[in-house]
Amino acid sequence: MTPEALNKTIESGNVTFFSRTKQRLWTKGETSGHFLKVVRIAPDCDNDTLLVLPIQLDQPVTKAPAAALGMPTISGYSCISLSNC
């Protein structure tokens, strides 16, 4: 997650990523309508990864939408590396 993606995520409340393929920011749901709303963002114990807890509003809370994106998760949190920051 780039600093710009993090800022947009915080401002909009929707999880936003930087696409290396498209070389632009993209918000999950901008095409499908299946947005990931941020519940909480916290650093991990090493302070080198952000843990983002999202919910997908059109899905039951028991589903793990981040896992569907192929992202590693820890107790429902999506792990987003800060290595680009």
CATH A-level architecture: Roll
Q: What count of structural domains?
A: 1
Q: How much strand? A: 35-45%
Helix/strand structural class: alpha+beta
CATH topology: Ubiquitin-like (UB roll)
Biggest beta-sheet profile: 4 strands, antiparallel
For CATH, the homologous superfamily is named as Phosphoribosyl-AMP cyclohydrolase
Strand order of the largest sheet: 3-4-6-5
- What does the average pLDDT come to? 77
Please bin the fraction of helical residues: 10-25%
Principal-axis shape equals globular
Q: Give the N-terminus to C-terminus distance in angstroms.
A: 8 Å
What is the element string, with H for helices and E for strands?
HEEEEHEE
Q: What is the CATH level 1 assignment?
A: Alpha Beta
According to DSSP, the number of beta strands is 6
User: Which consecutive residue ranges, at least 5 long each, have pLDDT under 50?
Assistant: none
Number of helices: 2
Structure, described:
The chain is of the alpha+beta class and 85 residues long. The protein has a single domain, classed as Ubiquitin-like (UB roll), CATH 3.10.20.810. The protein has helices spanning 3-12, 65-68; strands at residues 16-19, 24-27, 36-43, 49-56, 73-74, 77-81. The protein has a four-stranded antiparallel beta sheet. The chain has a two-stranded antiparallel sheet with strand order 1-2. The chain is globular and about 35 Å long. The model has no long low-confidence stretch (mean pLDDT 77). Its EC number is 3.5.4.19. Keywords: Amino-acid biosynthesis, Cytoplasm, Histidine biosynthesis, Hydrolase.
